[in-house]
Design goal:
By secondary structure, this protein is α/β, with parallel strands linked by helices. The protein is 45% helix and 13% strand. The protein has nine helices and nine strands. The protein has helices spanning 10-18, 36-55, 72-88, 104-116, 137-141, 170-184, 191-200, 216-237, 254-262; strands at 2-4, 23-28, 61-66, 95-98, 120-123, 142-143, 146-147, 241-244, 249-252. It has a three-stranded parallel sheet with strand order 1-2-3, sandwiched between helices. A two-stranded parallel ribbon has the order 4-5. A two-stranded antiparallel ribbon has the order 6-7. Helix 1 (10-18) links the parallel strand 1 and strand 2. Helix 7 crosses helix 8 (216-237). The longest helix is centred in the C-terminal third of the chain and has 22 residues, at 216-237. The chain is elongated. The model has no long low-confidence stretch (mean pLDDT 91).
């Protein structure tokens, strides 16, 4: 598991126990270990390591990465390096990426790194219980009776570097949604019926309708080949669908369900 430690312990330790990981890469930053701030940051890191050692039934290896957690580019580079190194080790272990711990820059970089590197498993973890009770919120987060929050003032904003992550192709997503909707409605999803539905939706780009009279069977065969090549093969390649041999049909994977529930909904 990869995680960032600033002022959290449970958000790092509990997911590590849940996933039963045997190695944790912890990113945190100590500019001056002897300063008061440095001692505080170090205390949180030490406590996370201590809790992992106490609570995990496994012998958890902890690898520390001292990197500026407030710098998005540094975080992205550090995360990519860790993932590449682990994947190059060839042990085939799953790599969990905790996007909920640490700084906002780490959170953004970790989500992008996980999208860039296939084989990683990004996850988030929500707070179930806070250390500060509702009764103490005015004492801690209010100044002169007015809500301020944990941050009193900020530095000037810094824009993040942008990285192009392509949207999935529209006709593939809409076509996959047609497959799902027809399956859920108990309608036929044979190649012939799917081609008809794709044509009605304006998603069929092959010029297969202009055939001589009496050659309809050839047209159906040609369209079945194109449907397999232009849609099914790509859905399977991207991990959006798989063939259910028991029902002799293609079924959406969890990722496919997420794709059709997220993109091109209008």
């Amino acid at each position: 598991m990869i995680a960032c430690v600033t002022f959290e312990t449970a958000k790092v330790v509990e997911p590590a126990l849940y996933y039963e990981v045997n190695k944790v890469h912890i990113i945190h930053y100590l500019k001056d270990p002897e300063s008061e701030a440095g001692k505080v940051y170090r205390a949180f890191y030490d406590r996370v390591v201590e809790l992992l050692d106490e609570k995990s039934p496994l012998k958890v290896e902890v690898e520390r990465h001292n990197a500026r957690v407030s710098d998005f580019s540094v975080m992205l580079r550090t995360l990519l390096d860790i993932i590449r190194t682990e994947q190059a080790s060839g042990d085939g272990c799953e790599i969990y990426v905790n996007i909920s711990s640490g700084s906002p820059e780490y959170a953004a970089a970790s989500a992008i790194a996980a999208m860039m590197m296939p084989g990683t498993i990004p996850f988030s973890v929500n707070t179930k219980e806070y250390t500060v009770s509702n009764e103490r919120i005015p004492e801690i987060y209010f100044v002169d009776g007015k809500p301020v929050g944990l941050t009193k003032s900020t530095y000037d904003p810094r824009t993040l570097q942008s990285y192009v992550i392509e949207m999935p192709e529209e006709h593939l997503v809409r076509g996959l949604r047609i497959l799902r909707n027809r399956s859920e409605a108990g309608q036929s999803v044979t190649s012939g019926k799917m081609v008809e539905a794709l044509k009605e939706a304006g998603l069929w780009y092959r010029d297969t309708d202009r055939v001589p009279e009496g050659r309809k069977s050839t047209q159906r065969q040609t369209e079945a080949v194109y449907y397999q090549r232009d849609f099914i093969a790509k859905w399977v390649k991207y991990g959006w669908a798989y063939r259910d041999d028991l029902r002799s049909r293609y079924v959406l994977t969890e990722e496919g369900e997420n794709i059709v529930s997220t993109f091109y909904l209008e």
